[in-house]
Amino acid sequence: MPQPSLPGSLTEGPGVAGGESRADPGQLLRLAAGLVIAAVLISGLYLGQGVLIPLAIAFLISFALGPLVTLLGRIGLPRLLSVCIVMVIVGAFIAGLALLVASQVRTLSAELPTYQSTIRGKISEITENMRGPGFLDGALDTFGVVQDEVSHAAPGSEGPGVQRVEMVPAPRSPFETAIAWLVPALEPIATAGIVLVFVFLVLLDRGDLRDRLIRLMGGNLHRSTDALEEAGRRISKYLLMQVVVNVTYAIPMALGLWFIGVPGWILWGALAALMRFIPYLGPLLSAFFPLSLAFAVDPGWDMLIWTGALILLLELISNNIVEPLLYGTSTGLSAISLIAAATFWTALWGPIGLILSTPLTVCLLVLGRNLPQLQFFEVLLGSTPVLDVPTRIYQRLIADDAEEAIEIVDQVIAEGDVIAFYDGYGIDVLRHVSDDYLANARVGHRLRVANGMDMLLDDLRAGYRPETAVETPPRIACIGGKWEIDSVACEMLVHALELRGLAAIQRREAVVTARHVDKMALEGIEVVCLSYFSREPEKPIRAFCRRLRQRWPGIRIVVALWNAPGALIDSNRIHDLGADEVVTSVEEALHRLRRMLTPEEALQDQIAPAPENDAERVEALQESEVLQGGSREELDALAKRASQVFDVKFAVISAIDAETEFIIGQSMDLPGRRTTDGTDMITMPRDEAICDHVVGSGELLVVNDTRRDPRFADHPAIQLWNTRFYAGAPLADGQGRVFGALCLLDTDPRKLGDEELTLLAAMAADVVSLITGDEAVEPGPVRSDPASLTVGQTVPD
Asked: Do 619 and 636 sit in the same domain of this protein?
């Protein structure tokens, strides 16, 4: 049982009490079964490498050649002919490269005898330099004497008169000698032939193989299809980028060796391009040969030094500039998982396993992302953080590492601002604290979190002060409802209000008695904000509001419910409890409080500023003739498709000229004022436009719940259409002119994931293509403010 404590301390909290759970025998059994299955699979991979290695190489090559076969098929060639053409092209390329390398090797082999004198001279020079007395000579001489004495005294050493007998094997026949030479030489040729056959069959029957893999992965067609598409996309991109990286390394290397004067510069460039397909060891092997030849050719040391400098410079540029720029997150693997995978597959399959380690591990990562049973692969191998930012901060506080928690906070704020951190991450940290108060946290953990949060907030207040000091007396008081985390949220809110230019004070969490309320000293305060993390705050809210009303009748009360159920927030019950408004986030609280104190200024904030190129944008929109009803049927069809794809109540396509917003496409008939010129389009003034913020910022805008955003809660169109969710993607052409937005609207709150945002931006590009008649422009990443209440979210690359 948790220890009782005084109200307002961190030794008790709003969570639900719970006990420690014992080990589940079923879970231990599943773990043992998983380990046995893993051992069987690894044994099968090792024992079956003779068949699995050619098959893996064939699939890897087919990933690289598949897009070319698909391209030939799109121009009308049969599948068999497309595969044959690709195989002939690849074979011709390999044969040409082999002939080039063979000619270079022949030339070098003819010139090598002329370098013998140079090699002997350098070796003699090095030997002479090493013959001088060194500081280890005495130790080496002593070691040699001891070794001789031990060898002479060892039992079994030959004594006087003992002759050593040597067994001479019988000479082998010419046939046996030929077999001994041919078998090792024919083995790689046979493997290459098997690989080519597999590649041909995989490319020819790709559709059938895909169907069989989908069947093996389970009955969920969506998940299996996504897994195969992601694996193919990642591996194909990885191979393509590796070819580009290797070529961009090999060409400068070959030209540099030619300029330095190293013979066979074409050979060494081609060898560098091929060897770099081998992770980690390939660059070392490709550098060994030109360095050795530079050592043998030049009687001096200049050529060797320049060759080494060239290779070092190219490695630095390739590793630190080219590879990060081109690879990016193409594999999705973490650095440590790449090294671990290389070690594992090398131990299992040798050098071929080292080459195949990255693609094979990518396949495991994709399976982990799409199959719940293999989710641990994503945790072990993926590059994405397995803990979100609030959880990481909370864990650092539990570990009594407030300094690292502050470092994480500083990194987050560097990408946004303090208010965005409070709204997007700080409140979530406190939710973790609230949920774990009695269920998991010990007394020591609670104390660490309390001290860590004090340090963190002190650091933020000291490092981020308002640009101009607030000289007006405080008109807002933030009061913690009951627990200390309620007061910590108040500290965040007070700091955010000061950064927005609103003076505020804080009062610690209160015991709801008339005497305590009398001592709060709220003279001059117009609005009180009560903070609660409790999941059942109705009773304390009613009691607190009643006491406040009795002592200060004219005061207005806003309740911040950070962790309450949605039923309490969405209903009018908050008014029955005695409060005037309810908020659920820091950003919403800032807007609500500002609107209550300065309604004129808050009203101006609802109007989005016009973009700098507004006149040019309006002129281009008029030239498109879309406002005269052009392409109306096609735009309605696109809006209807968007509503069906995203499963929302309805979708509209809007365009804004200098003074008016026009709904140029809609998925269903909607109420509103319409044009009388025959186009029958819904119109509204620009200052009431539903997509004015999208046009003004040029960014994708998502409002998960319009009631929680004061800028949209009272919007005429939002109220007329009974909308709770809004998402708008800008209709921007190649010159950056935003004509309007493709808008998704629903009667219930909801959220959009990254894939849905990407698809929404792509569909908006199709709308622009229809309006302008130009080809669709690939949508780029959109700046985001992930912590704001109205979120402009980033569209992933």
From this structure: yes
